[in-house]
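Table S4 entry, Villin-1.
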Amino acid sequence: LQSMKMVPVPEKAYGTFFEGDCYIILHTKRTSRGSAVDLHYWIGKDSSQDEQGAAALYVTQLDNALRGNPVQHREVQGHESETFQSYFRNGIIYKKGGVASGFKHVETNMYNIKRLLHVKGKKHVSATEVALSWDSFNKGDVFLLDLGKVLIQWNGPSCSIAEKSRGLALARSIRDSERGGRAQIGIIDNEKDSPDLMQIMKMVLGERRGELRDAIPDAKADELQKANVRLYHVYEKDSDLVVQEIATRPLTQDLLQHEDCYILDQGGFKIYVWRGKASSLEEKKAAFTRAVGFIQAKGYPSSTNVEVINDGAESAMFKQLFQRWTEKDETQGLGKVYTTGKIAKVEQVKFDTTQLHARPELAAEQRMVDDASGEIEVWRIEDLQMQPVNPKTYGQFYGGDCYLVLYTYLRSGRPHYVLYMWQGRHASVDEITACALNAIELDKKHGDEAVQVRVTMGKEPTHFLAIFKGKLVIYEGGTSRAQESTPEPAIRLFQVRGTDEMNTKATEVPARASSLNSNDVFLLTTSQVCYLWCGKGCSGDEREMAKVVADIVSKRDKHTILEGQEPAEFWEALGGKAPYANEKRFQEQITHYQPRLFECSNQTGRFIMTEVVGFCQEDLDEDDVMLLDTWEEIFLWVGKASNTYERNEAIASAKEYLKTHPAGRDLATPIILVKQGYEPLNFTGWFNAWDPYKW
């Protein structure tokens, strides 16, 4: 918010927040039942009361404009919800001052910078600007000394590997988004080994006197506290506001009457306001004010998280606080529906692109800038230069290469640009750097107008899939260069996911039977033939899209085979039969329970869990113990470098999790302990494009 008005933030600055400002964030995500919309207003610690009031007002207006669909959140600097933090995977940066004072100055003097950032967190990273002094340092965190053209990452002696790598991801993100890729990053992991970098630090900070401070543990709510849920009925009586407690755990859905508004207090860790469909407009408007009043009355900290929820558009987090939750169109509650297959089946939604112009907010969050009908140009990075790719092979990406994809589309008669930097998993560091530098040059040629998108192999955004019209193929290794000398593998296996040309991609997986999954179509190419293997759980649309891809990956005859009717040659090509992710009781019904991944920590004697929203394999760090809750089973994933205490306490932690779960879970739920590098299929099936060789 700038002078009480909403001003759009340029995409390059997403994730950077000025402490003197308030912000509004709109996030839309496709789900199996349409789309989930979240609306957050973020309060900087130095923002004025007026700005905070204006932000809350705008959120209410936006909510009305979006017909009461969004889940609304109040976020306070340093105490953001896990959902909010999941939008900024490289971390959140807090800058001193406000936009008015700081913004223009950053644009013009990109390198004229001297600041110290205190980086905290392992799963959710945030960086706060602190005083340029050794007094700001401690032994347990990462600090970034940002001098514009040079970024020095100083790792505290008691930092974990994950904290160091998240710190580096943040440093790279500052380099790529704020410095256009043109800054050097130096790392001090051990002061004795980096005399030159320490010299620079001493020049800026002076000589260090005395010992460094010990690390400060984060104050987090434990599971016992979060389990203490209470439901309050909120209503007006003779112009007085009455808040009446009506129930404690386990809560049931029938307690919520459509004519009323309720406050659900999750142990002071988070406050939910539920607004009934038939409650009065006045009541709906007062939701945030009431929540803040409730927080004050209870003596909770003013940073307490608030989520405002509408009847019929409840968030997954909210539903899981109830013993059973039934959707309008289903007859059974949470527990029952989940007896369907234990393999993750990703519901592919037909997406109506004609809505994009009518609802730009949908476009922004679907990552769909348009209907994908624009022009594409693709270059490969070769000898650190851009080499045009033959248009006949557009859509084919090799894990040993980096590519630049320039997408041009017209809006109101003028060209707009999106520049994707696709980085292969096996590309060299030099190529990845060259890719970023060439992107800057290409962006310059287009008047610095391109939206630059860094795409990591396997994490391609929706729009990227859509522009290749169902012909996106990702080869695990190799390169598409002309003088490539290594022969292509004789046998390759591809997993095809997608139901139409807007959402399809084929990913190469290891050519062995254990890679198969009953939910998908797989293409097995040999020197004689190309098999289209159709899993029991795949749909007709998925089979049709696989045929399109089959013509790209193989010129041989195509044979369609159904799961369970494979010829002997099929298994032979895969090196023999082997168990794979399949489920006898498979039904084509999608569970509404979203699997959830948590980082577990039991070090302080208190059981603390941090949720990772929108998780992937990258979120499993080797010094972690992670808990994956798929409702029917609880998986504990134990990293190689996790500490013995947490490893030994893992099973106890899982039992504690079930016992304290607000929904009153079945304590007999199976608990499965999984070791890093030995993950079974019923675990890896919940992750998209799992890479068995990652570690």
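The radius of gyration is 26 Å.
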